[in-house]
Amino acid sequence: MFLGSIICLLLWSGLRAETWKARELYLAWERAAWKFGPIKIQPIIVIKDAGYDSNIYYQPEAVSDFWLTAGPGVDAYLIVKRRIIIHVFESPQYVYFFKTERERTWNNYLNGDVSLSFNQLLLTVGGNLNNARERWNTEIDIRPRRKEERGFVSLLYQMSYRISLELTASSTDYQYESIEYDSINLGERLSRVENVWSSKFYYRLNSRIQFFLEGAWGEYDFKSPGSLGDSQSQTFYSGFEFSPTGRIRGRLRLGYKKFDTLAEDLPDFQGLVGDTSISWRFIRPLTLKGSYRRDVNFSVWSRNPFYVSNSWSAGCSFYLFRRNLRLDYTYSQTQNNYPLGEVGDSEPRRDSYTLNSVGIYYRIGKTVGLGVTGGLWNRQINVLGWDAERKFIGVNLTYEF
Hints:
Layout: H1 2-12, H2 20-31, E1 34-36, E2 39-53, E3 65-80, E4 84-97, E5 105-118, E6 121-133, E7 145-158, E8 163-176, E9 180-181, E10 184-185, H3 186-190, E11 192-206, E12 209-222, E13 231-242, E14 248-261, E15 269-283, E16 286-298, E17 306-320, E18 325-337, E19 350-363, E20 369-381, E21 388-398
Antiparallel strand pairs: 1-2, 2-3, 2-21, 3-4, 4-5, 5-6, 6-7, 7-8, 8-11, 9-10, 11-12, 12-13, 13-14, 14-15, 15-16, 16-17, 17-18, 18-19, 19-20, 20-21
């Protein structure tokens, strides 16, 4: 009844939307390539590293194979009287391995939302329904199937050109398949429901830079009574968001997290977290790139309820021939730190990863490039002797040329 009343009010009102998020949705609708009556569609083709991998299971005893992940995708938009904005994304993707038949699978990614725009307010209700087999983190070397069902509601209030506030509540149900991994059942260990409530304050410095403050409270309820993961978290973030049309693009986001496991005999975490990815068009042919991510991830490894993943990367893109050709280089390091060691171990587990990758891309559209990438990845684990190395080369498609 509440949502129905808002819809009637929006349809009746003659006021134009004023929030910056609504304008971004209108712009995406206007840029979509295909039009079918009131519906506009932006089609995409997904090609992820169709090529060769020398170690598909990331193990000391390497298994090599040729593989391909590809499929169509579509962003669809419908705007009703400039008050109701409906967006849906759908992408079925097939994963093909030439020799390893058991890794062949279909993945599907579906998300959508409905936004109600009214003067200085934007109410959005949406969700995800994803079903895929992937390597979900650096800890699990196999590709377990995971179903993700997420729903959320958010309310954005733009007080003025510079100041806006946003409240968001979300609930996500993660269901992992029941499969053994190093004597641990992943379905029993990781299947959970995450509920997160957050508030965000934005201050627009200019048309391309926003400063923000963000606070979030999370609750993690694991489905198996024997799981170690039941916990709560409180996080505070601050940083800047940059427009995708400026010389600096991406987001700088750093904060402090307090993560409390509910079991009394298990460790907690307090400290720095981050989720930063920035590119800077330094001079006309050269773009510099960097990222920093640090957060708590739930662990499947024996006594540890979680580990802290700390990763950073640096790289550059160099454009040639009137920006029709792009050369890429990226170097990244990741370390997973575990709070507890195994019984009898003198020190907790530490996983270290290093990646060097290069790529060359050719422009086939305004923002689309077809490229060939290759790299060398290696891992060192201090307590298990699971050191591993892999080499890869493949073709992929990017929509951020």
